[in-house]
Protein 1
Amino acid sequence: MSERSKKIFLYICIIVPFLGYCIFYYSNMIKNAPFRFSDFESIEFSYGSPDNMLNSYNSKTQAYQFVNRRDSIIKSTLKLRKDDLLYLHRKATEYGFWNFPEDMTGKVATADTAKQVVRFFLKLNYKEKSKQVLFDSNYQGDPKLIDAAKTMVGEVQRVLDDAEDRN
């Protein structure tokens, strides 16, 4: 095999697939580019039973509503810091929130199982777009996707709890 054919073989086997992968990887990043923190406007989060999701938060209006241990609805205002919003935006990027399907709900067969299922709604609003996900705790799908969605919901709840403790 001549020296020139070795170089051509090297380009075809190593460099061309690497360039193809880079183009594929960065094209997905560019496609999701409208989700920049500089364009971030608000976050909406609510959870509860599928019939009535009484626990909710909206960062635009700062309205925070939750059900306490005595089944009373508590309404208050809760302001998240810019650092908290940046943290949630980065976690959404880390967990691939932009690639989640919008509907991750399971089938609720009876009223008894509906009480056991917790439904979460998470929406991130940006200037040009918004991304929302409806997620049930009994969703049967890709385990990695379920773990990422549960972790994202847990992060939002943790940030809200921390902000509530600060106030």
Protein 2
Amino acid sequence: MNAFFDKFKTNKPAAEAEGEGKVQAPKVPSDLWVKCSGCDTPIYRKVFEEKLKVCDKCGFHHKLSSYERISLLTEPGSFEELFTEILPADPLNFGEEYMTKLAADQKKTNLNDAVLTGKAKVGEHNVALGFMDFFFRGGSMGSVVGEKITRILEYGADNRLPVIIATCSGGARMQEGVFSLMQLVKTNAAINRLGEAGVPYIVIMTDPTTAGVAASFAAIGDVILAEPGAIIGFSGRRVIEQTIRQKLPPDFQSAEFYQKHGFIDKVVHRRMMKKTLVRILNFFNPKAKKTEDVVAEPEKQTVEV
């Protein structure tokens, strides 16, 4: 009897022994599919990226990184980053844990902080720009974000370059307390200087644009655009309802709601955003070459990080 069972003995782990002689199924990458945050529809990642991270079924515009937005809106190879020397600190002494989180986000996003600033071309127009990144501490505005936004606005004023800023933020950064709140005033002062120089300032509100960012430089552009369905507002829906003791409309704090009430000039699909920007820039600079009809259709491009 023992001899009979001996032939089944093996030094290999049970799971490995059971699979011996069988064709092993190839491992399927875990990131081939993306679930839409708007309707839970699974989307093949390649199609998702080709569609600029917009769901075909419900039209939900998923978040883009700063570099993806650069690729989407500017001419290839034209972007030059500015103010890379400005680095985050820990003014309130939150300690090692906070600095570790900052370092992790820097590695994940390849950014120093939650905004990427520089100069580039949009169509035939030279512009200064700042694109916020939600993947860095929720796009929160601390001293570095406020300083870089201020500097790019001043750079636009000094060089007479239109300034385009795409906002995506949960608001002021709590780990910097009052230092974060000071950025609201500082950025608004820079916008005032830009206006005195007669230089156009264009804002693109993306999901979400809230709290301290919505209450400062995001709200006072010469032209304010927004992506469809973007959440925009200062306080959260539940906080407002509890304060005023009333139910709010279903579409409250959406880009469409704000356009309807005159706060936003136009809600623009991501596919049409670059062409819309070129038309606006042509309006502010009528002597420039009219390029809106030759802007590449972005749905045929793959957004790259």
